[in-house]
Amino acid sequence: MSIFMGKRIVLGVTGGVAAYKAAELARLLGKAGANVHCVLTEAASRFVTPASFQALTGNPAWSDLWDVRMPNGMAHIDLTRGAAALVVAPASANSIAKYVHGMADDLLSTLVLARDCPLVVCPAMNRQMWENSATQRNVAQLRQDGALILGPAAGEQACGEVGMGRMLEPEQIVAGLEAFFTPKLLAGKRVLMTAGPTYEALDPVRGITNLSSGKMGYALARACANAGAEVTLVSGPVSLATPAGVRRIDVKSALEMRDAVLRHVAQAGIFIAVAAVADYRPANVSAHKLKKSGATGLTIAMEQNPDILSEVAALSSAPFCVGFAAESQNLDEYATTKRAKKGIPLIVGNLVQDGMGGDANRVVLYDDSGRHELPAGSKDAVAADIVVYLANLLGA
Prior knowledge:
about 25% strand, elongated
């Protein structure tokens, strides 16, 4: 289940060209299950309209401190009652300055002052406004006062300049809020992970790999980080963005992945081996591109790659090890056998037809107490369920 399901979120929109992104943010939060209520400043209404937000959220949009639709005339108090957060995106330099000094001259600034829920601020402004010492002082004070600051990002701005000040993309803000709301079940834990495929070179242009997309591993890295863990991710070649708060180490081959894991495993309390590591690699790598060999074809001598998970599990000071078993049949038999052979406390099994390369997955967990099937769902949802189970297992 989404962490946003049933949560009331008040989305404040201030004046700035980035206000158009707030509409997509409202849509994404609603899609994730949040009950979104939007409040626009007068300046924001010059860029976007309340009608757009009402259509996207299914709730009335607000902008007037004296709005008669609130029967008791106290929209500035009642809108945030029961809210999980008040999110201001975009937050202009002017609005940030007002929040720091407790000014309350419109509906949104009054809500900030009268709220009884967390404040999340997503700055958006010209790079010179962002770099101004007054803005930096104000943001630092807001953070000290307990507000969560998400962003800004660097890049090209509407004015044509390039630098810090862009509002984070809506997807990034949603990810930041997800991390904020997630219980910190792994706080204080250091997690080392592998993810993605490995690539075993034949020659300078060809190699042997597999269909792993890395999506499950990256979802699990994100879930561990959201749960408060310090995560180091050793990744094979994938086309995925690094999850927020995760340290990423890029490798290609199984030997490179092994070396990276062994360099960092001493600092880890948990090792999660999600990567689809090639069992074999070419015994000889050609320095030049191999040519067609005519009717006789091509014979490739192979040699076995090291078993990274078994090697880590056999260490005298081994971390808590979690393995993955992707099988095409007989999942229970192969997964339990693999867990026993590697000598690890927990293994996550799935059928490749249920998840490999896709956005959803169905997994079964195997440990000393038996078989535990998790609900099928998106890989992010499945990863979050795995983290809850892992945290409970570690606590037990």
